[in-house]
Amino acid sequence: MRSEAACYAGPFRIEPVRVLARRELRDPEGQSLQVALEVAWEPRLKPISLVQRMEDLRVVDEKGEELPLDDTQAELEVAGGEATAIELILPLELPPRRVQEIASLKGRLTAMIPGKVETFTFDDVMNVRNVTKKAAGVAVTVSQVRKNNELWEVRMRVRFDRAGGALQSHRGWILDNEAFLQDADGKKILYDTTEVTGQSEDEVGLAFLFFLDDPPEGCRFVYKTPATIVATAFDYEIKGVKLP
Fold it and tell me: Does one domain contain both 133 and 211?
């Protein structure tokens, strides 16, 4: 049964699903209150990540008094990807026993949302050297194809005009982009493993490794990636959350 306290913020549905109060009898400093929110979205959206800065959160009780947060400098981040919902846990200080409910919880979610997926095709990949192709706000460069012990390696770079932090090392979405070889008959040849060869604010280097019996002569290399990454903020407000 869905809560009546759920709200909508742009393409997101935000619903309180759990409140957990902890009171340490031996350690007064160990008291806390956690509010778990389920953030759901349409499958077509596929946000890379969602961020709630604690300084953008304001929580008040039924008397209109503000409830203190556990750490106003913290940034809570959860990955999106192929999921259609995530759980975001907000850490608050445990309020006095007289407080019966959270009358209002206002926050701001910043969603990192990928734009339209573009397809980059490099024909006769064995003869490709430092070829760059561009679309919208992204450039894909295949530097070379070479033998790497028992594997064949396609080395490439992806550079965004404005990545907006989307390529930070803890965000691994770029490794989920589709990439494959395609032979003259149109058959897909999937890579066996991939490596990150370099990373900066707006660019990442990748190596795709294929176990092949023969060199990929006459094959094309196909890579798909969102052309833009947009960070968009959504304000939300949840009302009437009863405390345990």
Answer: yes
From residue 55, give the alpha-carbon distance in Å to each of 5, 71, 100, 221.
Answer: 22, 8, 24, 46
Q: Per-residue pLDDT tens for 69-101?
A: 888 899 999 988 788 999 999 999 888 889 999
- Which pTM does this prediction carry? 0.82
- Number of domains observed in the structure of the chain: 2
φ and ψ of 116, to 5 deg? -60, 140
**Residues 149 and 132 occupy one common structural domain:** yes
- Helix, strand, or coil (residue 103): strand
Domain that holds residue 72: 7-114+230-242
Reading phi first (left if > 0) and then psi (alpha if -120 to 50, else beta), residue 46 is in: left
Q: 206 pairs with which residues across the strands?
A: 156, 196
